[in-house]
Write a structure and sequence with these properties.
By secondary structure, the protein is an alpha/beta fold. Helix content is 51%, strand content 20%. Bound molecules: adenosine-5'-triphosphate (ATP) and magnesium ion. The site of adenosine-5'-triphosphate has 21 residues, from helix 8 and helix 10.
């Protein structure tokens, strides 16, 4: 039943109106005669519609009361009036009026005005909801763009510096130093490429436009190649130990998603563990599933943070000065989900972390 509050200082008129409303199956939750009482009533028990006389007792009139109510509660208000000059009507308009009912009241008019007000209100709410959804989507996009721009700065300045060294001293550098510069440039380019890919994958998987692209993947070759690329990019600060049986078959997987998974987990293992440490990458294949486990001897993740890390922009409380955007694991999570797999984390602060990913896959030769 629609709950209606009547704000009217002439009691007889208010009671007559209430009787008509009850006959039309509305629930009259109260009759008040001043603006202040109306505001109090709305705060205690908000009605669905307010019928508001413009000229009422007390220090604020109906229009000012409506303005104050609307600044705190989103409730449609219909004005009751015997006559109104243009100036009053204009003030009423400015409060976003949902209509007028002229005195003396006719049942049909009251009914039509209330129905119309409720409908307009529903439409306004729906519009507001879609506007705020669009707004938060666009806030999210700007945030991602800002992050991307920020993360591109480091590799770009590496490229600029290495290029300047090569330009200014190229001739006089020995072969080893030249190779170092080129490798630094290549490492930075691949960092930027990965970042770009991450952002694209994230926006595709979120918009559900990512199309799974299963293809034959030679598991051992794939991991050896990834580790080789990594070693170049990190300039051998860590040792990556691959343990994959040579008997690993060729399986059917989406290679791009697999790359995102491994790339992000490996880069975390490296980033959050001390230089010189060894990262273990174990791969096993049984029947129709592939299991990867990546473990590091790093800073670990506090228990209370572990369940949050697959959400975007969430980082653990113990990262200290280590830079990051909190996007990597959310990409891993989405990639694993798209693949119908699962991911687990085991970690102890100060001891290390192990991520295990299980992906269902078909054996290409089966
Ligand atoms: P980026 O988006 O650049 O990857 P990030 O590494 O901070 O930034 P995620 O990869 O999503 O973001 O990881 C989220 C958080 O999980 C990290 O900030 C860190 O707190 C924690 N974390 C992830 N992997 C490890 C790990 N191997 N050891 C310790 N903490 C980790
Ligand atoms: Mg990361």
């Amino acid at each position: 039943m629609t709950k209606i509050l009547i704000v009217e200082d002439e009691l007889l008129i208010a009671q007559g109106l209430a009787r008509k409303l009850v006959k039309m199956d509305y629930h009259v939750v109260g009759i008040v005669s001043s603006g202040r009482d109306a505001i109090r009533h709305v705060d205690d028990d908000p009605p669905d519609v307010i019928l508001m006389d413009i000229v009422i007792k007390g220090d604020i009139d109906g229009i000012e009361t409506a303005r104050q109510i609307q600044s705190r509660n989103n409730i449609p208000i219909i004005y009751l009036t015997a006559y109104a000059d243009d100036e009053t009507l204009e003030r009423a308009e400015q409060t976003g009026s949902y209509g007028y009912i002229l005195k003396p009241f006719k049942e049909r008019e009251i009914h039509a005005a209330i129905k119309m007000a409720l409908k307009k209100h529903q439409e306004a709410l729906a519009l507001q909801a879609s506007l705020s959804a669009i707004q938060s989507l666009s806030d999210e996009k700007s945030r991602q763009l800002a992050i991307a721009a920020h993360d591109f700065r480091n590799p770009l300045s590496t490229i600029r510096m290495s290029a300047e060294i090569l330009q200014d001293y190229g001739e006089s550098l020995d072969a080893e130093r030249q190779t170092e510069c080129f490798e630094r440039i290549q490492g930075a380019v691949s960092t930027m490429n990965n970042l770009l890919e991450d952002i694209l994958v994230l926006s595709h998987t979120e918009a559900a436009t990512y199309e799974l692209c299963p293809q034959q993947v030679d598991i051992v070759a794939f991991f050896e190649d990834m580790i080789h690329q990594f070693a170049l990019a990190i300039q051998n600060t860590h040792h990556i130990q691959l343990d994959a049986p040579q008997s690993c078959p060729i399986v059917i997987l989406d290679e791009r998603l697999l790359q995102h998974i491994v790339l992000n987990l490996l880069s975390n293992a490296i980033k959050y563990s001390p230089s010189g440490g060894t990262i273990h990458l174990d791969v096993t294949h049984e029947q129709d599933r592939l299991t990867l486990s990546i473990s590091d001897p790093g800073i670990g993740i506090p228990d209370e943070d572990q369940h949050l890390l697959f959400q975007r922009f969430k980082r653990a409380s113990n990262v200290g000065e280590i830079q990051g955007t909190g996007l990597g694991l959310s990409i891993v999570h989405q990639a694993v989900e798209l693949h119908g797999g699962e991911i687990q984390v085991e970690s102890k602060v100060g001891i290390g972390t192990r991520f295990t990913v299980i992906l269902p896959c078909d054996d290409a030769l089966a």
